Q: What sequence folds into this?
């Protein structure tokens, strides 16, 4: 598998966690699995993680050449997984064996979160051209939203395997009253595309409306300083808490204590933290964007908002405060649905498909 980041990369996140799960399962099935990724400061050139042989080399603009050089010294592979994160590895044109494209989300508007025009426009255009260029290559993605984007851009074959989760659902759903203060949580990398500032502004609006709301922000990232400054400017230092990155048990505890997970991202491939929250008995309130509309079933396991605005978040939360029975229904159904995303249910069909691709003719 070719991917820009590996599980130990400081910039790694949900995509790397789920990728590791698939490759580790292939190792358990008796396959030899390699993961080629970009180098990063302090990284070992090679190491093994859960049986997966990690190889690192190069950085932006050079890692594809490093991958080709390393690959040509190896025995013939049966399958190459070319993982796209905005820019692919172009493996089908140099790997000389069966290949598939693995993509979590079509970045689309996310380009604008990280780059100003005209760079953002160039990024979006090359992404569309890339998908057309890859149109005859089988694609694998976790959501129907991404599948629709790929089909619209000319890709002919797309399979959907939803991501599993490491979070173990509560054995029994404990009681959690919808009492004041309203406890909210967001769990993500603090990056521009996550729009955590929208969640902060929603807390400001709620408190202005007389709804005592508190927000816990779990994670770290490049906009953390700006977000902390925004909290100070809005006078919310006693309402918003930054925890930094947490270990899994601590993160589960934060999700378990919250009344709602808030997710205001520009777009996601799936929304792994939503299922993790659901496993802890916590429903989500999300923006109506790709990935989040797949991991949240509107008005069943949580709420898909009508608009991508902090006002929509605040209005929805203010309304549900007065309907505890509705909240209890969300909790129960979110918790029950989270059980269907256990890895032992998710991995077999995806790995069966990968094995079938490895047996296929050279593409």
A:
């Amino acid at each position: 598998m070719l991917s820009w980041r590996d599980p130990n990369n400081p910039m790694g996140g949900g995509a790397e966690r789920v990728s590791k799960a698939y490759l580790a399962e292939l190792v358990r099935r008796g396959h030899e699995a390699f993961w080629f990724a970009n180098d990063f400061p302090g990284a070992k050139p090679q190491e093994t993680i859960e049986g997966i042989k990690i190889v690192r080399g190069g950085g932006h603009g050079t890692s594809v050449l490093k991958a080709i050089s390393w690959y040509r010294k190896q025995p013939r592979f049966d399958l190459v997984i070319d993982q796209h994160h905005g820019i692919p590895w172009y493996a089908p044109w140099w790997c000389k064996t069966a290949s598939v494209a693995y993509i979590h989300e079509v970045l689309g508007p996310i380009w604008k979160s990280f780059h100003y025009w005209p760079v953002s426009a160039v990024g979006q255009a090359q992404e569309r051209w890339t998908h057309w260029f890859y149109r005859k290559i089988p694609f694998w993605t976790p959501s129907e939203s991404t599948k629709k984007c790929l089909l619209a851009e000319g890709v002919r074959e797309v399979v959907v395997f939803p991501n599993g989760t490491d979070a173990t659902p509560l054995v029994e759903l404990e009681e959690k009253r919808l009492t004041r203060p309203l406890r909210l949580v967001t769990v993500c990398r603090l990056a521009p595309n996550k729009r955590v500032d929208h969640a902060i502004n929603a807390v400001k609006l709620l408190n202005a409306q007389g709804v005592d709301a508190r927000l816990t922000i779990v994670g770290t990232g490049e906009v953390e300083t700006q977000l902390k400054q925004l909290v100070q400017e809005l006078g919310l230092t006693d309402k918003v808490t930054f925890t930094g990155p947490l270990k899994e048990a601590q993160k589960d505890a934060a999700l378990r204590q919250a009344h709602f997970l808030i997710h205001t991202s520009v777009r996601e491939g799936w929304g792994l933290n939503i299922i993790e929250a659901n496993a802890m008995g916590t429903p989500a309130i999300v923006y109506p964007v790709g990935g989040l509309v797949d991991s949240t079933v509107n008005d069943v396991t949580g709420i898909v908002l009508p608009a991508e605005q902090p006002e929509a978040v605040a209005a929805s939360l203010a309304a549900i405060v007065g309907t505890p029975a509705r909240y209890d229904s969300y909790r129960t159904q979110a918790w029950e649905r989270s059980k269907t995303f256990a890895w032992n249910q998710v991995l077999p069909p995806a790995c069966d498909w990968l094995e079938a691709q490895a047996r296929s003719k050279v593409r």
The mean pLDDT is 94. DSSP finds 13 helices and 13 strands in the chain. The CA atoms of residues 227 and 233 lie 10 Å apart. The chain has two domains: 14-164+343-359, 182-341.
